[in-house]
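task queued by scheduler; priority normal; single chain, no ligands, no partner chains; default sampling; output format set to structure tokens
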Amino acid sequence: MYRIKTMNKISPKGLAHLDADRFEVGDAVAQEQAILVRSAKLHDYDFPTELLAIARAGAGVNNIPLDRCSESGIVVFNTPGANANAVKELAICALLLASRNISGGIEWVKDQVKSGVDVAQVVEKGKAAFAGQEIMGKTLGVVGLGAIGILVANAAVTLGMDVVGYDPFLSVSSALSLSPKIRYVQDLSKLYGQSDYISLHLPMTSETRASINKDAFAQMKDGVRIINLARGELVHNADMIAALESGKVASYVTDFPDSEISGVPNVVPIPHLGASTEESEENCAIIAALELQDYLENGNIKNSVNLPNLSQDWQTAFRISILHRQDQLTGITSLLSQRGITAEFLSSKAKGDYTYTLLDTNVAIDDAVISALSSMDGVLRIRVLTH
């Protein structure tokens, strides 16, 4: 039985995919072989030696120490696209919140009720303070054309917006999914210079951290409206506050509020609701659970963010799963051949400094072979699975 520790509340519909006869699942599980997590921070978590994999029920993995996991042969999964529709819908809402002071108007009405005035009598006069603009005919710049960015860009087209997209790593499948009405640019400054709205959908990396700063604002149109449902750290708060005060930025909608930015005029702080829908949480949990199940039982890796993705149909009695350095494959296969282990099927995939190898055989693997492989320099993790 495999032991899976849950670090946050995980949708029961996802956990239902983990058969109780084969998986022990819960927040009190010890010596866990896998972790199911949403937002819990694992950077200071003491990983047990038994830990094989971590599945993040969501897209972002900045709460997980990827380098430490890679060096320990721990596969980290995420669930790309599972929450994409939920975030897309919030992005459409954010476009409207950035355009028309809807939230301010609602709070004003509530204040009138508290003051005891006849609300119906004051609304017509007071509403002028909350007038805004329509999004139809305006230009939206979408920075990042992954699963979410594509949906946002395509939806904006249907709402009558002109859309400009930028993504230096645009995949073929993503390009084919884009509406032909979307203009793709390879220079971010061109997107900045023509966008009335900018929606951020890029990962937070050392290159993108605080990239929405005074230099970026200098390339943007006056009165630009910025939507950030990606990561709070993408925006340099002090520079954003200065841009809001000067009018360079007309409004800033963020799903990552903090004490520094949330009380600033023309900031619409949303309490991290991007993926907070029943459907999204269920989708993320189901995909994360199935990723762990397939890896623990079959050795297949899909949607890993730190190690190679590799899946192989399994038709033999035994499977050897090996995570190792790139230059060790020849040595591994040579050792197995010397021990009489014949590979019926072998697949190997590299990513960065790491390689993942699946070898299927009908020859039983004894402890001596496992010990010999484990002692090889560069072998990070080895498992023998049986059908």
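post-processing summary
- The CA atoms of residues 228 and 254 lie 5 Å apart.
- The longest helix spans residues 278-298.
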